[in-house]
Every structure is written in C-alpha cells, then in structure tokens.
C-alpha cells in the first residue's frame, strides 16, 4: 500500500519537474543574462580603477564559475539526469546501505504496517475467553496490548506518512526552482540563497533516512514484544513508554534534520501544527476563563443593583 502510494507520488513528481524545469529556465534566462552582464560590467569597472593588476585572475575566475553554474542550471537534460535523481534517490541508497539492499523509507513503512497488522491478528488470536485465573490474566494482557498497540501506532503512522509526503512534495518544488538558485551561486552577494537551497535539499535527504531508521526500530520492538509472544505486565508498560516515545520522535525528526542542515526545514509542518494546536487550546481555555469571570461579574453587578435602597430606610 505505502510502496504504491510513494511510487505513484514519485512518478507524478518526476513528470511535474520534467515539465516545469524547462519552462522555468526559459523564463529566468533573460533575467539571469541581464544580471550576468551587469556583474561583468562591474568587474570591468573595478579592474580599471584598481591599482593592482588582478584583471587576468578575475577574468579566469569569472569565466570558470559562470561556465560551471550555467552548465548545471541551464542545461535542463543534464539537470534532470543528475541533480534531480541525486536529491530524490540518495536517501534510498543511504538507507539501503544501512538496512539492506532494496530498503528505503516507503519499504520500511510498508514493512512496519505489515508487522503491526500481523501482530494485531496474533494478539487477537491469543485472547482466550474463560473464567479461570490463567484465562482472565491472558485475556487482560492480550487485550491491553491490543488496545495500546492500536492507539500507540496510529498517531505514529499518521505523523510519519504526513511528514514524508509533505517533504517529498516540497522537495519537488525546490527542484523546479533549483536552476535559479544554482545561478545565484555565481554572484557573491546571493550565494547565501544557493546555500539555503542546498540545505533544504539536504534536509529532505536526512529526514527520509531518519524515518526509515525509526521504522526499522519500531519493527524490532514488535518482533521482540509481540511476535515472540513475550507479553507480560512489564513489557506492556515498556511498550506504552516506547509508543509515546515514537510519537514524540516522529515530531522531532523534522526538527533534528532541519537543525543539522543549517536552518528551518521544509518538513516542519507537523511541529508547527502541534504548536498551533497547543496555542489554540490555550486560547480556548483563556476565553473560557474570561467568559466565566465576565458572567460572575455580571451576576455581582445585578445583585448590587437589586439591593440598591434595601436597608437604608430609617424608622421614626
């Protein structure tokens, strides 16, 4: 299921990049050409007004750097044959080297899903209904593990799939506008934009590798606790802690990869969403408290108005 989903998404992304990169390069080429011309004029002016004779070295450096970035950015077939596959498929190669041939994030996610499904069926089949102490204990342990497995892995799956799909779609947008940022490496004042672009691409690679490793870690947990039929009270408690840790890990992996890649990552959607939900919940609680305070104040004002004149009439 997940292999089909990610394979379908990869096909759409490749076709979209192939269709859009050439058009985008055609659009930015006049603008880039104008910037290059102005930069060469600026270098010529600096050479004429410089007392030291650096014109030969500056000319060689300018021609070399211009030729390098132009070959990468404006040569669409070369860009599609080398840059795009490098960014999209390098995480799969790294994951295969770490976990085994043919392993990647989508395969690991599919394996985790299959193992979870097998483990749930195994736990359900081990539930024995009876009135003896052993049957009641087995029913309690297996039922508890079944319930915790469902509520523990569903959030982890949801966060992982949403993050990986969002990161893959976002990196396709990065690759579409990539020629413009590669050309920015030619100008000293805009090289920071190129560095930011490469950092975002590297962030996607790290994120895919980290999630594949986390999936294999979860599979090992299932094999150790569930498939080995080693279901005890101690293992149930450990499983609760591990399930909670996996959910936290799924929200922290984008932060880790973005920090290692040098900035805010393309996959911080989940973390920002969780922060937004927390802020919304806090605002709702504050609004509820304000409503209660306003209602109490209104009651006190109404009571004071109703008591005006009472007890002030003197006898005689």
Question: What's a quick, concise take on this entry?
Answer:
The protein has 316 residues and is mostly helical.
Description:
The chain has 316 residues and is an all-alpha fold. It has one domain (2-16, 76-283). It is built from nine helices and no strands. Helix 1 (2-49) packs antiparallel against helix 2 (55-73). The protein is elongated, with a radius of gyration of 31 Å. Residues 269-278 and 312-316 have low confidence and may be disordered. Keywords: Membrane, Transmembrane, Transmembrane helix. One of its GO terms (biological process) is protein secretion by the type IV secretion system. InterPro entries: Conjugal_tfr_TrbL/VirB6 (IPR007688). Pfam families: TrbL.
Strand coverage percent: under 5%
The global form is: elongated
| Largest sheet data | none
Low-confidence stretches: 269-278, 312-316
- Number of distinct beta strands: 0
- Secondary structural class: mainly alpha
Give the termini distance in whole angstroms: 94 Å
Instruction: Output mean pLDDT.
Output: 74
Helicity range: over 70%
Oligomer: single chain
Radius of gyration: 31 Å
Query: How many structural domains?
Result: 1
**How many helices?**
9
What's the SSE pattern? Answer: HHHHHHHHH
